């Protein structure tokens, strides 16, 4: 007369084979001797779908198995509408799994698990709703192609990896060759730049040396003229005449001659000799104004720049301080002095 129902169960009650009601959890009173109950577990249940063989759309054999999670939502429908709902859902899941795999290509069956799960669940929802069963989830565990297909896939994967390795190796060699060529190019540019600066400096040095030698020769020629003039004056002084006419530039001539005799035309620090001032054309020819840039170059050091500046200043100062007169002017002065004495 008394039926105890657990909290997670529901029981269908029949009296004389006629369905009466669903017994809820707790104590239930039923007619004795003529009543019968059928228990339904209302918790989520797991159905293991056996491994199934299928042929994909591109004619590749595969095998797959799955797990289906269901729950009884209406115990009355599960009792009256279907016999052994667990077995019914399992068989329906097997046929649906084969159908879904048959509509897909091999690569899709291996890569699109979520899509397969969604399709199977959608196919199971409609018939199981009539049974009072809800399909909560479907999970495909494994999809395996045949051994021949697996070997072909392994060979394909191996070939693809070898191809990628060869491509990477070729790219590395090409990049290495480019880097070597770029390095050689830069090295040649730097070497050519150094040789160019060396040739320019050598030419500048030769030009400056030539000009200085010419100025020195001119200075020596003026000294010879001055010596000759002094000898003429000495001869004039030995004559009987007591009247002398001195040229206007005699004092400056004697002063320069005294400098040449005593060496006072040399600087006190001994850096350079006095010479004539270079005109702008000569400076441009010798490149005196560009020596600093040529010596320094693109990456010239501070020491070479300072040394070049000191040399340029010494040469320019020597030229600016020069007071040498033209030889023709000196000869004319001597001639005038001799004519006056006569």
Key terms:
342 residues, 10 helices, three-stranded antiparallel beta sheet, alpha+beta, rod-shaped
Structure, described:
With 342 residues, the protein is α+β, with helices and mostly antiparallel strands. Helix content is 58%, strand content 19%. It has 10 helices and 8 strands. Strands 3-2-5 form a 3-stranded antiparallel sheet. Strands 6-7-8 form a 3-stranded antiparallel sheet. Strands 1-4 form a two-stranded antiparallel ribbon. Strand 6 (45-55) and strand 7 (61-72) form a beta hairpin. The longest helix has 91 residues, at 147-237. The protein is rod-shaped, with a radius of gyration of 59 Å. The termini are far apart. Mean pLDDT is 77; it is low at 272-276, 298-303 and 322-327.
Shape, per Cα inertia axes: rod-shaped
SSE succession: EEEEEEEHHHHEHHHHHH
Level of helix content?
55-70%
Please state the structural category.
alpha+beta
- Any idea what the radius of gyration is? 59 Å
Query: Based on DSSP secondary structure assignment, what is the total number of beta strands?
Result: 8
**Average of pLDDT:** 77
Distance between the termini: 178 Å
Low-confidence stretches: 272-276, 298-303, 322-327
Number of helical regions: 10
Strand content: 15-25%
Give the neighbour order of strands across the main sheet. 3-2-5
Sketch the major β-sheet: 3 strands, antiparallel
